[in-house]
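User: Reviewer 2 asked us to show a designed sequence for the structure in our supplementary figure. I'm pasting the C-alpha cells here. Could you produce the per-position amino acids so we can include them in the response letter?
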C-alpha cells in the first residue's frame, strides 16, 4: 500500500533554522525555485505572478521532472546532495549545444515556497506519469508531504503552485532581479505572466564595454548580479559564443575574488572572436597562444572596469585606516602624511588580495618607519643662517628639490609640535614634572642654538653618575628613577650633554663642550643665588676631575621667571651661565621655525599640508578628541 502522508523526522524549529537563509528573503526564494528548474535541464520557466497578495503563484518548467519514486526519495530529505546522485554538468532531454553547470548543492532550495505560504503543491511528470504532492508545515516533523495521486501525462516537467500570503513582491521587481541572475545563458528562457525577460528589462544595472582586439570590437556587458546568493558561480565572466553559453570563468581566475564588491557583478562577453577555438563539446576554448592572448585582453578590459567599481570601496578602506592611525598621522608633517596616503593606495592597487587587517598592519609599520626618519641634515644647512638673510637662504633653498623641502617641513612640523608640548608642560608651575621634562629637552637640544643640531651632542651618563656622587652629600643629588643619565635635586633636575674632542687620528681626547641644563620647579625665580648655585655645581665637577678647565660649558638654568643676567665665569671665561625663562626660549625657537617654514613654502611654492585627498578629508573631520 502506498504511503499517503510522509515527511522528515525533524522539529519545526530545526527545519526553519535549516532553511532560514533561503525563506527569509523572498527574492532569494524565487531564485532558488528557478535554480531547481535550471539544474533539472529546463530550457524555459514560466512564472504566473499575481498583482496583489493572496493570488495564486505558479512556477512551471520543461525540465526532466521526477517519477513518484524519485520524488519520495529526494523531497523529504532535509539536505539532499545532488553530487551524491549526479555530476556537476546538467543533462538535457534533447540534444543541444553548450555546457550548463548545476548551481544546487545542498538540496534546500526546494523548500523556498515556504517563504510565501504555509503550504504548496508540486506536480511533476516523467516517463508518461504525473505525480501530485502537497507540502505543508508541521510542528512535529517540520513539514509533511501528502500524496494526492498519479495519472498519465506525456512529456517532462515540474509545476509548483501556492497562494502568496507573505513576502509579496511586484512582478516588475521580480523581472529585474531574475534577469541579472539567469540571462547569462541565452538558451534559458524565463517568462513572467507570459512576457519573456530580456536584457532590456534590467538595463538600469548594465554598462556596455567595447574592447578592441585585432581590429574587432568585443562587446562586454556588465551587470549587477545582486546580493541574494552567496554562490560565486553566479558571478564572474561568462562567454557567449555562437549564441551558446560557454563555461563561466570565476573571479578567482580573473582577479582577486576575495574582494566582495567584485563578486556583486557579472560580466558577459558577447563575441564570436574565439568561435574557431571552441572545443568539441562547446564547453570551453581550446588552449592556444591566440586564445590566451585574446582572453587576457578581454580580462584586462574587465579589470579596468572592476577597478572603477572598487575605487570607492578602496577609498573607504583607506580613510578607515587613516582614521585608526589618526593620532600618529596628525603628528606627522604634510609630506609624510601624503606618503602614508600614497603607500596605502599603491598597496591597494598592486596587492589586490591584501586583507584590510594586513593593509592596516603594513600602514602602521610604514608610519613608524617614517617617524624614525629625519630631515636634520637639510635643516642644519639653515640652522646657522639668520632667517632675515634672504639671499643666502634663497640660494640654499634653490638647490633643494621639492621632496627635500617637504622633508625639512616635516622636521619643522615635528619640532613645532615638540615646542607646543614643552610649552604646555611648563605653563603650569604646579604640575611641572621635571623628570619627564628633561627627556623632552634632550630631544630638542636645537632649541639652545644651531651648534646643538649635531648628533654628536648626547646625554653623558658617566658624567651624570659622577655628578651624582660629587653633589650627592652636599646637595642631596640622586639619579633619576626614570633615566640614570639625569641628576635629581630637591628643587630641580640636571641634564648633562656633551660632544667629544678628537685628534688628527680620529681618537677621542676627552670632552670638547658640555651643554648643562638645570630645570627648576615651577614657581621658582631664577635670581643671583640660583645662578651662583649652578656655578658651584660646575666648580665641584671641575675640582673632582670630572670636567677639565679647558672644557667649554654652556649652562642653562631655566625657571618660570628670571631676574638676573647671564655671566661668563671660570679662569678662561669658558663657562657661560645663562638664566632663561621657559616661555622665552621656547617662544624664540618657535618663531625661528615658523619663519623658516614660511620662507620654504614661499620659495618652493608648496604648503605644509597633505595633498592626498583621503588623508586631507579624514584629517579635516572633527573627532571627539578634538573637543576634549
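Assistant: Here is a per-position design you can include in the supplement:
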Amino acid at each position: 500500500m502506498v504511503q499517503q502522508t510522509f515527511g522528515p523526522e525533524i522539529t519545526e524549529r530545526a527545519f526553519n533554522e535549516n532553511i532560514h537563509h533561503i525563506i527569509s528573503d523572498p527574492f532569494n526564494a524565487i531564485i532558488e525555485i528557478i535554480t531547481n528548474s535550471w539544474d533539472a535541464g529546463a530550457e524555459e520557466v514560466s512564472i504566473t505572478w499575481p498583482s496583489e497578495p493572496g493570488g495564486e503563484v505558479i512556477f512551471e518548467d520543461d525540465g526532466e521532472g521526477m517519477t513518484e519514486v524519485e520524488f519520495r526519495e529526494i523531497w523529504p530529505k532535509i539536505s539532499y546532495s545532488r553530487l551524491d546522485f549526479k555530476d556537476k554538468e546538467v543533462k538535457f532531454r534533447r540534444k543541444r549545444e553548450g555546457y550548463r553547470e548545476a548551481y544546487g548543492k545542498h538540496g534546500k532550495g526546494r523548500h523556498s515556497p515556504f517563504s510565501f505560504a504555509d503550504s504548496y503543491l508540486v506536480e511533476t511528470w516523467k516517463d508518461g506519469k504525473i505525480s501530485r504532492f502537497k507540502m505543508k508545515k508541521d510542528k512535529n516533523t517540520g513539514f509533511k508531504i501528502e500524496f494526492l495521486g498519479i495519472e498519465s501525462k506525456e512529456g517532462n516537467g515540474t509545476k509548483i503552485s501556492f497562494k502568496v500570503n507573505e513576502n509579496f513582491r511586484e512582478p516588475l521587481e521580480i523581472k529585474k532581479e531574475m534577469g541579472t541572475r539567469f540571462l547569462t545563458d541565452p538558451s534559458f528562457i524565463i517568462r513572467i505572466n507570459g512576457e519573456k525577460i530580456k536584457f532590456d528589462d534590467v538595463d538600469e544595472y548594465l554598462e556596455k564595454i567595447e574592447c578592441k582586439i585585432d581590429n574587432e570590437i568585443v562587446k562586454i556587458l556588465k551587470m549587477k548580479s545582486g546580493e541574494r546568493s552567496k554562490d560565486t558561480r553566479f558571478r564572474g565572466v561568462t562567454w557567449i559564443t555562437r549564441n551558446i553559453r560557454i563555461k563561466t570563468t570565476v573571479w578567482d581566475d580573473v582577479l582577486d575574488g576575495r574582494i566582495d564588491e567584485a563578486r556583486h557583478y557579472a560580466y558577459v562577453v558577447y563575441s564570436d572572436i574565439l568561435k574557431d577555438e571552441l572545443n568539441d563539446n562547446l564547453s570551453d576554448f581550446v588552449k592556444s597562444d591566440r586564445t590566451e592572448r585574446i582572453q587576457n585582453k578581454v580580462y584586462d578590459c574587465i579589470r579596468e572596469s572592476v577597478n572603477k567599481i572598487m575605487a570607492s570601496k578602496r577609498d573607504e578602506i583607506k580613510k578607515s585606516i587613516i582614521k585608526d592611525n589618526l593620532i600618529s598621522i596628525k603628528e606627522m608633517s604634510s609630506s609624510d602624511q601624503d606618503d602614508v596616503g600614497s603607500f596605502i593606495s599603491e598597496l591597494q592597487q598592486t596587492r589586490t588580495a591584501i586583507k584590510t587587517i594586513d593593509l592596516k598592519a603594513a600602514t602602521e609599520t610604514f608610519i613608524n618607519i617614517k617617524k624614525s626618519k629625519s630631515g636634520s641634515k637639510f635643516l642644519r644647512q639653515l640652522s646657522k643662517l639668520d632667517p632675515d638673510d634672504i639671499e643666502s637662504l634663497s640660494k640654499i633653498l634653490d638647490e633643494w628639490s621639492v621632496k627635500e623641502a617637504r622633508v625639512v617641513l616635516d622636521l619643522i612640523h615635528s619640532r613645532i609640535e615638540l615646542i607646543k608640548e614643552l610649552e604646555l608642560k611648563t605653563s603650569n608651575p604646579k604640575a611641572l614634572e621635571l623628570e619627564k621634562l628633561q627627556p623632552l629637552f634632550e630631544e630638542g637640544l636645537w632649541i639652545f642654538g644651531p651648534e646643538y643640531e649635531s648628533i654628536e651632542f648626547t646625554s653623558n651618563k658617566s658624567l651624570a653618575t659622577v655628578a651624582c656622587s660629587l653633589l650627592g652629600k652636599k646637595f642631596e643629588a640622586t639619579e633619576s628613577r626614570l633615566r640614570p643619565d639625569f641628576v635629581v635635586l630637591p628643587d630641580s633636575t640636571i641634564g648633562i650633554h656633551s660632544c667629544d674632542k678628537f685628534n688628527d687620528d680620529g681618537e677621542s681626547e676627552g670632552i670638547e663642550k658640555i651643554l648643562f641644563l638645570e630645570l627648576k620647579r615651577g614657581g621658582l625665580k631664577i635670581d643671583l643665588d640660583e645662578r651662583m648655585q649652578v656655578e658651584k655645581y660646575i666648580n665641584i665637577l671641575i675640582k673632582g676631575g670630572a670636567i677639565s678647565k679647558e672644557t667649554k660649558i654652556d649652562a642653562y638654568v631655566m625657571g618660570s621667571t628670571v631676574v638676573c643676567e647671564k655671566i661668563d665665569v671660570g679662569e678662561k671665561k669658558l663657562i657661560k651661565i645663562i638664566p632663561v625663562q621657559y616661555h622665552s626660549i621656547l617662544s624664540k625657537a618657535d618663531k625661528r621655525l615658523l619663519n623658516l617654514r614660511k620662507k620654504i613654502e614661499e620659495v618652493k611654492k608648496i604648503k605644509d599640508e597633505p595633498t592626498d585627498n583621503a588623508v586631507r578629508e579624514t584629517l579635516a573631520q572633527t573627532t571627539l578628541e578634538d573637543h576634549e
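For the response letter, you might also mention the following. The chain has three domains: 5-198, 206-306, 428-590+596-604. The longest strand covers residues 508-520.
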